[in-house]
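In pairs, describe these two lines:
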Amino acid sequence: MLRHIIEAIIVILLVTTPLSAYAQDKRTEQQRARLEQYKRELNKAKAEVESLKREKRSASKEVAAIEREMRLRNGYIGEVEEERSTVRSDIESHTQRIDSLAEELERNRAIYAEAVRVAHRNYKQNTNANYLLASESIADAARRKAQIEHITTSRKALADTILAQTEMLNIERTTLASRIMELDSITEVLEGERRTLENNRVAAQRAYNQLTKREKAAINEQRKQQRLHDEAVKELQKMLKGNKVGAGFSRDTRGLNLPVAGGVLTEQGFGGTVTGNKGDAVRTIHEGIVQDIQYKKLTNRYTIFLGYNEYLVTYTNLSSVSVKKGEVVKKDQKIGVIGSGIESTDKPYVRIAIYDCETKKPLQVSSFFKKL
């Protein structure tokens, strides 16, 4: 029985422990992938700001670019904080496993030490030989011999268990040390990003102060619309719960054309701008339902909120709309007309953002519009 128990311990230690850590490792990998995506988008935004500064183009565009970078940096900081939380959880998990392994190892060492003392005493007193000589028959002798061999095998299995536990404990301690260093590194990155975010704020304010009265009014309106848009999205996410229209639409959708024929998609953070020509039609890229339509009197522009199953897609800066709230629209159906830009030199555009209402996070737009 002792041998079977010891063998079971070895199996549990060598097989189930790595599996219990698998989910944690997978979650960490997924978090790092999201973090890297944010980092790439943030670097693109930073490059755009630097380009605007070098070329000394429109100050309003520079302010908008800096604020876009700030929004991305805020998102990046949130992802870094989440990664730090994941690593802390990982550290706690490793610490618990180390404590559990250390306790089990000490118990097994105590059992093994006692087994060795008994074996040595039996050897000195020739107990095993006397035990065999006391057999009443050949069958009894065979049984007693098997018992002695079983004890020896169990003792060896226990020794193997101790070696396996010691090795695993060393691995866990090494991993824990690595995670602690990783946590320190993440904390340093987080503090650096927060400092940079403050620098962004100062730079945005400085650039804003250089704007004309008209440009400031336009920027303030953009900020207001962004706030209202974010608030509307939060409310609409609740409305989309249980929506089954556009059920085939997912983040894995491929082969969809741009909503503006012949348009050019430029990704900016977790949104995208499709530029086109004056009077171009804006069309849906999949069957969906019109969740809401908002009109802004100051800009004379519309925003359409379309629900595709659990996804919410917003089309902003439309000069006119051709659908109604609550209407189910088909793929490639016209929903409105592209609007002009703030400045006279801007090409007409429609701004698009996609949200996963389950995770409440914005998504990359290119995967939805990618052509085969």
